[in-house]
């Protein structure tokens, strides 16, 4: 991909480890559905989420207080850090209950992430299409994020490319995605 640094490991976790993590996180996470304001209207987000780590997270005018690290999440963070040679202090969990849950086009560009953030994304459960688009070059890329895969975006990826997880009409079971991030709290 031009103007980007993206790495992908389709079989990053062993099948057994991915299965255990998926069922543990599905059952033990205090999932929340949060409102988001879109074009002046408040609607519920089309997915569930949970936020863990060392700092609150502000987006779309909402501040999420972090949950304390659990054993499985801390262990996974260690493996992701070893793979990426980067440290992370937070993880955002998204749960897509079916093919109707999705995430629209965006960049991971919250100010607390700083310039050129490294974002490490672990996928569990149903495979879903993950799309990239480069508005200036009018280019697109696509990757099927499967159970146990790791996708890492670094460097100028967020500056030049947007990404999304589109809806699908195909019957689709649950998926959990975890994005590990390093946040520097703003001193507001
Ligand atoms: O679910 C995914 O794979 C993408 C999640 C994402 O882009 C985000 O949390 O910012
Ligand atoms: Mn994102």
UniProtKB/TrEMBL annotation:
Q: Which Pfam families match?
A: 2OG-FeII_Oxy_2
Which BP terms in the Gene Ontology apply to this protein? DNA alkylation repair
Q: Does the keyword Metal-binding apply?
A: yes
Q: Which cofactors are reported in the record for this sequence? A: Fe(2+)
UniProt entry keywords in alphabetical sequence: Dioxygenase, DNA damage, DNA repair, Iron, Magnesium, Metal-binding, Oxidoreductase
Start and end residues of each Fe2OG dioxygenase domain: 87-184
Stored InterPro entries: AlkB-like, AlkB-like_sf, ALKBH3, Oxoglu/Fe-dep_dioxygenase_dom
Q: Molecular function (GO) terms listed?
A: catalytic activity, acting on DNA; demethylase activity; dioxygenase activity; hydrolase activity; metal ion binding; oxidoreductase activity, acting on paired donors, with incorporation or reduction of molecular oxygen
**Record has Chloroplast as a keyword:** no
Q: By its UniProt entry, which PROSITE patterns does this protein fall under?
A: FE2OG_OXY
Q: Which Gene3D superfamilies match?
A: Alpha-ketoglutarate-dependent dioxygenase AlkB-like
Q: What PANTHER family would the database entry show? A: ALPHA-KETOGLUTARATE-DEPENDENT DIOXYGENASE ALKB HOMOLOG 3
Protein known as: Fe2OG dioxygenase domain-containing protein
Organism annotation: Salinivibrio kushneri
